[in-house]
Design brief:
By secondary structure, the protein is α/β, with parallel strands linked by helices. It is built from eight helices and five strands. Strands 2-1-3-4-5 form a five-stranded mixed sheet, with helices on both faces. The chain is elongated, with a radius of gyration of 26 Å.
């Protein structure tokens, strides 16, 4: 039996392209989910893997739909092979039921991992360059330096933390953190 697995990462995306290709490939059942590929505890994938029996063929539209890490992909395909289940990726034209297909799977998996590493390195380099230029990341501070000085003066003048938080329209935790940092 041919079983398909389709995955998208966000709710903004749609599995239609994948399911159309899987249906055209003859899949009798298609498991679909919206979940990051980085997560290994994907519920639909687990259900799909449990449903597979010896002689079945698991088909995906593209390798990265099954898993993002080379290690995870190899573990999955090795597990399938040990259970006498074939694996096929339509886009990369990989079919592990043949020795050539197994070789191609490992080559494409390695290339995909290499590409992700390059992307990660470029992102890290870009963030470092932005930090050098003075770009600040994260949420902006709730209080500017003048407001911080005023809040400290209000506290020293006898105002309660809650009253100060209301005055500046910030959470009490912001005032607690400010006072804690001030005491340090």
């Amino acid at each position: 039996m041919k079983i398909g697995y389709a995955r998208v990462s966000t709710n903004d995306q749609d599995t239609q392209l994948q399911t159309d290709a899987l249906t055209a490939a003859g899949c009798e059942r298609i498991y679909q989910e919206t979940q990051s590929g980085a997560k290994q505890d994907r519920l639909e994938l687990q259900q799909c893997l449990k449903s597979l029996r010896a002689g079945d063929l698991l088909i995906v539209w593209k390798l990265d739909r099954l898993g993002r890490s080379l290690q995870h992909l190899i573990e999955l395909v090795t597990d399938l092979e040990s259970r006498q289940i074939g694996f096929q990726s339509l886009t990369e034209n990989i079919d592990t039921t043949s020795p050539t297909g197994k070789l191609i799977f490992h080559i494409f998996g390695s290339l995909a991992e290499f590409e992700r590493c390059l992307i990660r390195e470029r992102v890290i380099a870009g963030l470092a360059a932005a930090k050098k230029k003075g770009t600040k990341f994260g949420r902006p501070e709730a209080l500017n330096p003048t407001d911080k000085d005023m809040a400290l003066a209000m506290f020293n003048g006898g105002a309660t933390k809650i009253a100060i938080a209301r005055h500046f329209k910030v959470t009490r935790q912001t005032i607690y953190t400010l006072l804690k940092d001030y005491d340090s």
